[in-house]
Write a structure and sequence with these properties.
By secondary structure, the protein is mostly helical. It contains two helices and no strands. It is 77% helix and 0% strand. Keywords: Membrane, Transmembrane, Transmembrane helix.
Length: 56
Amino acid sequence: MANKKSIQSIPQEEELSAEDYAIIAAALSALGDFFFFLSLVKAKESTQAETNKKTK
């Protein structure tokens, strides 16, 4: 069995602060905006490809 001294020396994990949650939320929002941008670029490419097929 582990002795009590080694169990007590394990540091307690701290909870995330409001600032930490705000940073995580901002990062996720930026990531979402980036993927939204990529989807717009892909949609534009698809539309242009279809338009070029119809005109030929």
